[in-house]
Structures are given as structure tokens and as C-alpha cells.
Amino acid sequence: MNLRTRAAGLAAMLAGAAFSAQAYAADLIGQPTPGGIDLQPANSALAHSAHGFHNAILLPIITVISLFVLALLIIVIVRFNSKANPVPAKFSHNTLLEIVWTLVPVGILLFIAIFSFKLLFAYHDMPKPDLTVKVNGYQWYWGYAYPDQKIDEITSVMLSEADAKKENLPYRLAADASMVVPVGKTVRVLVTGQDVIHAFFVPAFGVMTSAIPGRVNEIWFKAEKTGTFYGQCTQLCGSDHAFMPIQVKVVTQPEFDAWVASKAPKSAPVAAVMAPAPAAAAPAAAEAAPAPQKIAQIDTASKPVGLN
Ligand SMILES: [Cu+2]
User: Fold this and answer.
1) Which segments of 183-216 are extended strands (E)?
2) Could you tell me the distance, in angstroms and rounded to a whole number, from the CA of residue 211 to the centre of ligand 1?
3) Alpha carbon separation from 53 to 3, 99, 196 (Å, rounded)
4) Whole-prediction pTM value?
5) How far is residue 27's CA from residue 167's CA, in Å, rounded to a whole number?
6) Which of 58, 88, 164, 223 could join 171 via S-S bond, C-beta 3.0 to 4.6 A?
């Protein structure tokens, strides 16, 4: 973490510091870090487990195998080149060696599988969900619906460079609307696609699944901290594949309730109570923009096709 922060600072200085990397520095969770080489900080139990699996199991194995192969290569280059070894041996088989180099990799894979399956089961073992969000992938934006809260689909389109700059948000990650979820609650995410295959990927929560038309995939996460967490479509889905970021806002339960109320139909009494407090919750207020205004913000470059 420290190393990465230092590396990020150095990269920003080298780049002339004009880039607003330092502006984000205060809130560098949930998004890529300039100059970063590590995984994004985890914000869910699943992500912590996935990081543990990577750091404690995969990374040491990869390192040992790489060093071992490198050592073999160096030995071959130094000891068995034509100068050092003018008369090569003629044998072509060694039964013991062949058994060893078949069994050792099998053993390594079995060892990895034990931990890998444990993690895989954890991903499929969802606790009783507190909330369900239905995620729809479109060319090239996302839609978030909350069936239990009776919130119809909210479309989320990438912010233009000018808008992102204005709000000091990371361009190509920031969107005009968020998927809003409460902190510390089990969120079930049902993911599907409406045109081609997309993929819903938010690194901080350690979740990724495909958004396939005609099929619903289920993932879940439980956010540990509040904040904004970014992800991206990870399935090549067309010309604007790189321009359909995922923006998840994790808020406290009262903030979430206020946001839900602001999205509820105007006739509902709770909406009337919440409506006159636009400055009460800054993150929620940004989300409360009515749909026509939101569509007006969409820049022409990333204008969605078929936005009813
Ligand atoms: Cu996509």
C-alpha cells in the first residue's frame, strides 16, 4: 500500500503533476491508482478472500516456478552449449524424470484446487440477501433496477470528459448515475444483457459475471466501507465497450433510505417528505436528478442507442 502510494506520487511528479492524480489521492479506494501495480484494495469479504488466495497461494507458486524454470534455462545455457559440452549425450528418455515432471504439476494443481474450490463455494454461498439489484447491460451503458424497492431501471451513462473534470471525477470511470447500495448489507446482483454479452466487474468487491441476453447470472457482495467504487464492462461488446463504466456508491442505511425515497413515485407520502431536502445528503442528491435532466447531460459521443 505504502509502496503503491509512493509509486503513484512519483509517477504523478514525473508526469509533471498536471494530471489530477493527487486530487484523487484522498479517496483512492474503488478505482485504479496511477502507477499502481497491486490489486485494488478489497471492500468485501469475498474480495479479501480472493486477494488472500492470490497473495498466499498463487503468487508464491508462480514465483517458485518462474525461478526454477529460469535456473534450468541458465544451467542449460551455461553447461550445455556447444562450446562447454562439445560431445552431447545420446539418450532421449528418462522414465523417473518423466514420472516426476508429470506428477509434480498434478500435485501443484491439486493443491491450488483445494483453495480455489473453497473460494468458489464461498462465491456461490450467498447469505440471505438484504437487497436485490437487477443489472442490465446495454450497448453501451448500464441499467440498475431495484425490484423490492419498486425502483424502475435507472440508466447509467459514462460522463463526458468535460463533466468528469468539472466534478473532479475519474474520466471513463465516472457515470451520470450510480448503483447505490447500503454498507454492510448483503447485496444480491442479478446480471443480464439486453443486446450482446457484457460483463459486470467491480474489482473492489471481487465480483465479476457475464451479462448474457436471455440468462440471469447471480453474484453477491457485502461492502465494508462507504465510498464510490468503479468497475468496467469486461466483455468485448462493440465499439464503445471501453465507455460503459460501472459506478457503485456505497452509502449508509439512512442515506440509502433517503435515496430510495427520492426515487419512489411522487404520489408516495415518503417522497413528499424527502423531496424538500436536496442538500441533506450530497451523494444522494446527485442521484436524485429526474430522468429527463440526466438524459440531457449525456454527451453525444457516448449517447446510448435505444434509450426509451
Ligand atoms: Cu459491454
Assistant:
1) 186-193, 198-202, 207-211
2) 8
3) 21, 29, 32
4) 0.72
5) 14
6) 164
Asked whether 198 and 156 are in contact (CB, 8 A), the reply is: no
pLDDT digits (tens, 9 = 90+) for 178-220: 999 999 999 999 999 999 999 999 999 999 999 999 999 999 9
Query: Looking at the predicted structure, is the pLDDT value of residue 300 above 90?
Result: no
- Give the whole-angstrom CA distance, residue 100 versus residue 68: 15
281 Cβ neighbours under 8 A, 6+ residues apart: 251, 255, 258, 259
Beta bridge partners of 141: 138
What pLDDT was estimated at residue 29? 76
293 CA → ligand 1 middle, Å = 24
Ligand 1: centre distance to CA 169 (Å)? 21
Q: Which residues surround ligand 1, an ion (CB under 5 A)?
A: 198, 233, 237
List the grid coordinates of 286.
446527485
Task: Return the biggest CA–CA distance within the chain.
Answer: 92
Residue 252 has pLDDT above 70, yes or no: yes
Going from the Cα of 86 to the center of ligand 1, the distance in angstroms, rounded, reads 58
Round to whole Å and give the CA distance between 39 and 272: 43
- To the nearest 10°, report the CA torsion of 145, 159, 275, 279: 130
pLDDT in tens, 145-190: 999 999 999 999 999 999 999 988 999 999 999 999 999 999 999 9
Distance in Å, CA 234 to ligand 1 centroid: 7
Alpha-carbon distance of 182 to 222, in angstroms, equals 9
Residue 63 CA to ligand 1 centre (angstroms): 34
Centre of ligand 1 from the C-alpha of residue 213, in Å: 12
Structural domains of the chain, with CATH: 1-15+26-41 (no CATH), 45-84+94-124 (no CATH), 131-299 (2.60.40.420)
Kindly give the distance from the C-alpha atom of residue 75 to the centroid of ligand 1, in angstroms, as a whole number. 47
Collapsed DSSP state (helix, strand, coil) of residue 266: coil
Pure H helices in 37-149: 45-52, 59-79, 95-124
